Amino acid sequence: MSASEEILLRAVSVTKVFPGTVALDGVDFNAYRGKVNVLVGENGAGKSTLMKIIAGAEQPTAGKLVMEGHPVRFHSPLEAQSYGVGIIYQELDLCRNLSVSDNIFLTREIAPRGVINFKKQREASKRLLARLEHSIDPEKKVADLGVSSQQIVAIAKALAQNVKILIMDEPTSALTADEVSILFRVVRELKAQGVTIVYISHRLEEVLQIGDFISVLRDGKMRAEATVGDIDVNWIIEKMVGKSLSAPPPREGGAAKRVLLEVLGLSYARVEGGHHVKGASFFVRSGEIVGLYGLMGAGRTELLECVIGLHPDASGDVVVDGSPLPKSASVGERIARGLILVPEDRQAAGIVKTLTVGGNVILASVGGYARMGILPRNAGKSEILDMIRQLSIRVSSSDQLITALSGGNQQKVVVAKALLTKPKVLLMDEPTRGIDVNAKSEIFAIMNGLARTGIGILFASSELKEIVALSDRVIVMAGGAVTGEFGRGAYTEADLVAAAARDRVAPRSSGEG
Questions:
Q1: Residues near 359 by Cβ (< 8 Å), separated by ≥ 6?
Q2: β-pairing verdict for 339-342 and 473-478
């Protein structure tokens, strides 16, 4: 079989121009039949835009698509679906007010004689979720699911289609290691059935494991294409960013600093019984980066939400810089006292989609800029621009709508919003989710820099290597409880994994010294 016969779909000289931005510039891209075609690039490189064009959600300004040797132009996602093109978007396209099964079969309802058979849809949904080794209730509303479970529903929705080409845009960004293994098994099954996979991920070791071919976008241009077996991580990074990356310099150790955050006996009960968080106690010192590790359902997100005040019915004590917070303290009051949270789900809790980049950056700090209840037109302009430069946010103007940015740049805006409140303690829930390798390096450098200024950082991550590389101490959770606490250099990755599997609470270290 010749190379041209193996190509199921080609993008030929595809260009996409948005106001003020050339997202794609004459891009050629090949998707090989029955293979995993990896597409990588920095945030803003044009990956998601190219995939939206292939999926019919965007129209090219110039260029064309060729499928099975014939030119095609998809005017809508439904038209693309009719040609066998399915997509799992990075920003999940789920209807939060509908049930799991309603989402899975949305626009493809099982409706003989025009009447939807909800029972058959629920049964089919159960089978699809079982294929992904999940027992999510098909009747549960998507809004009541965590980010990881929502990601599983989106994957099940894609599997429900009879696809020739399946585009997967960051499908593992919210998944645990075990869930990633299950997804890879499903991907290999699809390949065996002749399905062509287009796979986007910032986890470079992951793409080397699952990919067959790799294409690299940089600044809207296609920079390289190769067989995965012929390249390594360093090759990918150099093609993505035009240079090799070095890790940020380690922070110097020193005498123990004062305790900025102390949490004592924090508990948050589940409505259905049991606890999201159970008797958690820990501390964070000035200038310290503390990693929060645990498996899915361990309670990391809920713990951070309790600390910032999103669950007023939580019990226990939170002490900031030696002063206890009133149990009734609102989120705004906690921000004023020096706490701020970068949430896991930027779409639902991190950004306001109708605001500009600048409007989002200043959102948590408006009280400091308002005059007699009125916010001046250019309030905080210099601080906003400084944050854009500091975090290398790719944006043509601070007045650009937040929705025009790539997912990774939106995440940077959320981080900028948090930093502008000048926190004493920065809480970060999966801060590098959906961020490319270069941006991760920048975020890590920023976290180290903030710690050097005396800010305390508590960050949750499902990336074990991130936890090990960044943390001065690691707090491990399982079943809502703290099951281990480890200092830098005093543990292995295996120790953290073992602690994450425990069902008993380990003794807590003292915050003194």
A1: 352, 402
A2: unpaired
* CATH T-level topology, domain 257-338+423-506: Rossmann fold (3.40.50)
Length of the chain: 513
What is the per-residue pLDDT across 357-411, written as a single tens digit (0 to 9) for each? Answer: 998 998 888 777 777 677 777 778 889 999 898 888 888 899 999 988 877 788 8
Q: Report the predicted TM-score, pTM, of the whole model to 2 decimal places.
A: 0.62
Domain ranges of the chain: 3-241, 257-338+423-506, 353-422
Q: Is pLDDT of 273 > 70?
A: no
Whether 3-241 shares its CATH topology with 257-338+423-506 is answered yes
Give the integer Cα–Cα distance in Å for 376 and 356.
15
Neighbouring CB atoms inside 10 A of 464's CB total: 16
415 phi and psi angles, rounded to 5 deg = -65, -40
pLDDT exceeds 80 at position 481: yes
The pLDDT, as a whole number, for residue 502 is 65
What is the CB-side half-sphere exposure of residue 233 using CA atoms within 13 A? 11
For CA atoms 404, 344, 94, 149, give the dihedral sign.
Answer: positive
Q: How far apart are CA 142 and CA 147, in angstroms?
A: 10
pLDDT band at 237 (very low <50, low <70, confident <90, very high): confident
Distances (CA, A) of 165 to 9, 27, 78: 9, 19, 14
CATH fold for the domain made of 3-241: Rossmann fold (3.40.50)
Q: What are phi and psi of 261, to 5 degrees?
A: -135, 130
Ramachandran angles phi, psi of 412, nearest 5°: -65, -35
Give the tens place of pLDDT for each residue, 47-97.
Answer: 989 999 999 999 999 999 999 999 999 999 999 999 999 998 877 788 989
| Contact by Cβ (8 Å): 461, 435 | no
DSSP string of 64-89, one letter each residue: EEEETTEEE--SSHHHHHHTTEEEE-
Count of CB atoms within 10 A of residue 11's CB?
Answer: 22
**Rounded distance between C-alpha atoms, residue 83 and residue 81, angstroms:** 5
CB burial string 482-504: b at 16+ within 10 A, e below: bbbbbeeeebeeeebeebbeeee
- Cβ-in-10-Å burial (0-12, 13-18, 19+) of 70 comes to exposed
Among residues 261, 295, 267, 302, which one has the least CA distance to residue 477?
295
Distance in angstroms (rounded) separating the CA atoms of residues 168 and 391:
27
